[in-house]
Design a protein that fits this description.
Elements (H helix, E strand, L loop, with lengths): L3 E6 L11 H12 L3 E6 L6 H9 L4 E5 L5 H15 L5 E4 L1 H5 L1 H5 L6 E3 L4 H12 L10 E4 L4 E3 L21 H8 L3 E4 L2 E2 L10 H5 L4 E2 L2 H15 L3 E4 L8 H14 L4 E6 L1 H5 L3 H10 L1 E9 L3 H6 L7 H13 L3 E8 L6 H17 L3 E7 L9 H6 L8 H5 L13 H22 L5 H20 L6 H7 L25
Parallel strand pairs: 1-2, 1-3, 3-4, 4-5, 8-11, 11-12, 12-13, 13-14, 14-15
Antiparallel strand pairs: 5-6, 6-7, 9-10
Helix pairs in contact: 1-6, 2-3, 9-10, 10-12, 15-18, 18-19
């Protein structure tokens, strides 16, 4: 057995979908090469800092994966603690945020190496170089530094997912995750990448619009075997856009049906791909266990969709997606982005009224509205800088950025207050429409406020919000939902990588 490599996933808000698939994938490749990976996930390890210190003693290196936002704080805390105890111990950062901002990440004194993009082969080569005391100069896909120089090696060629081993799910403590999340769930990726080039999306920067997928046969075999072996109730696909290859997507659904293995599964997609499916295809998805689909619909204003470079997104297809999903008995969540540069109040009114109409027609639809968040590396950043959007300059500043908070100079004051009131009415109306009252008081409230709330949305009249004040005494408004599962999210939340 070769040396030990410690892999750490920092804490984040919200219940976990399961073990971080990114670390399981890294562990599988390391183990295949004879190394001894150790995974420490803060979601199930309350003593994670102590565990990382203990395991790092005698190890080759520590690898930390991080997403933009509050998750970075835990990554920094652990990295600084380890570096203070072991100044020469190599600490590696990888994942979405370090890939998007490698030089800024590497500038921190507690970061020695940054893995950019796919990390399975890269981390294995780093471990081999550290064990053999070789230079890092020939390893593609990394940024690294000496005491005075930061070096960015050439990018690594993308590995096809079918050429990589199955993630090390046998290292996962399913019982521990069940205790935390309340169910036996599995996060699983059948593909990475999306062919579209939305101006606000980091996916196109990270994967460069390449769709890289496992074969349908491998997906069916792995998913059903994992479900059976570990008694999984629900599989949440992490794919950016699962049905890009429609033939493959339907082969997976039919393959699951043919195995007879029963479980729930969920995925994200774009509405145009669902509209290319037949009604029988949607019935097959439902029969295979699909219970939820998430969509980045973002807006129903044609000018805003054009600004977002979402030319593939059509309003009529949003209606059709909801209708077809209902045929398969599948819930859907439409994500909405407000405050995008160039958006007007009229654009917001159009989006809320259209989505309200979709919700009125289709009971299987929920909504997850968000204020535009400028993530690192997105194509629109040059424009945002000219509009005085505050841009974090260090890893710590990115870690302090509250996800979901409003950082937009053009959406403040009375305009922001009016938008928030519009949004509250929209969410209240959607919840009242679906509400099954359990008490006479909540049913009375629903009856009293539902018609005036609908009138306000139709007319955009939001003065004297007595309905909001009355309803807030009895229930809270669900502000955000996971596009992966449709479940309610806390204000600050990130998904498993």
């Amino acid at each position: 057995m070769r040396g030990k490599v410690v892999l750490f996933y920092p804490p984040y808000e919200g219940p976990p979908l399961g073990a971080p698939t990114c670390l399981l994938a890294l562990a599988a490749t390391l183990r295949e090469a004879g190394f001894r990976p150790v995974i420490i996930d803060a979601a199930i390890e309350p003593r994670y800092k102590e565990r990382v210190l203990e395991e790092s003693d005698g190890a080759l290196c520590l690898g930390i994966s991080a997403l933009t936002g509050p998750m970075i704080r835990g990554a920094i805390d652990v990295a600084k603690t380890v570096k203070a105890k072991m100044p020469k111990f190599p600490i590696i950062f990888g994942g979405w945020h370090p890939t998007l901002l490698p030089d800024e990440t590497l500038a921190e004194p507690y970061v020695d190496i940054v893995v950019r993009g796919q990390g399975e082969i890269t981390l294995r080569e780093i471990a081999e170089a550290l064990e053999e005391k070789r230079s890092l100069r020939e390893i593609a896909g990394i940024s690294w530094k000496t005491s005075v120089i930061r070096t960015h090696n050439p990018d690594r060629k993308v590995e096809q997912l079918d050429d990589l081993p199955i993630p090390a799910y046998d290292m996962m403590d399913f019982d521990a995750y069940e205790r935390v999340s309340g169910g036996r769930k599995l996060a699983y990726a059948t593909s990475i990448g999306c062919p579209y080039a939305c101006n606000y999306c980091t996916d196109m920067v990270f994967y460069k619009r390449r769709f890289n997928a496992l074969s349908a046969e491998r997906v069916v075999k792995e998913m059903t075997e994992l479900v059976t072996k570990y008694r999984i109730e629900e599989v949440a696909l992490l794919d950016s856009n699962f049905p890009v290859d429609l033939k493959r997507a339907m082969a997976i659904a039919r393959g699951i049906v043919e195995t007879g293995v029963k479980f729930r599964w969920t995925f994200q997609a774009s509405t145009d791909f669902i509209c290319r499916m037949s009604e029988d295809d949607l019935r097959t998805l439902g029969a295979s266990g699909v219970t939820h689909m998430g969509f980045g619909t973002e807006s129903t204003s044609e000018p805003v969709l054009k600004l977002m470079n979402k030319r593939h997104q059509r309003v009529n297809e949003m209606y059709e997606t909801a209708r077809r999903a209902a045929i398969g008995g599948i819930r859907v969540t439409f994500n909405l982005i407000f405050g995008y540069p160039g958006e007007t109040e009229e654009d917001r009114i159009v989006t809320l009224q259209t989505m309200n109409d979709i919700g009125r027609q289709f009971q299987n639809v929920s909504f997850s509205p968000n204020i535009f968040t400028p993530y690192p590396g997105i194509p629109i950043w040059p424009q945002l800088r000219t509009m005085n959007v505050p841009e974090p300059k260090t890893l710590r500043e990115w870690g302090e950025m509250p996800l979901g908070a409003n950082l937009l100079p053009w959406l403040q004051g009375q305009e922001l207050s009016r938008f928030q009131r519009m949004l509250d009415y929209f969410l209240l109306n959607n919840q009242l429409r679906k509400k099954k009252s359990k008490t006479w008081s909540s049913e009375l409230t629903r009856v009293i406020v539902q018609h005036p709330v609908q009138w306000r949305i139709r007319t955009s009249r939001y003065d004297f919000p007595w309905e909001l004040q009355l309803s807030r005494r009895l229930e809270k408004l669900v502000q955000r939902r996971s596009l992966v599962t449709g479940q309610e999210l806390p204000t600050e939340a990130v998904s498993v990588c």
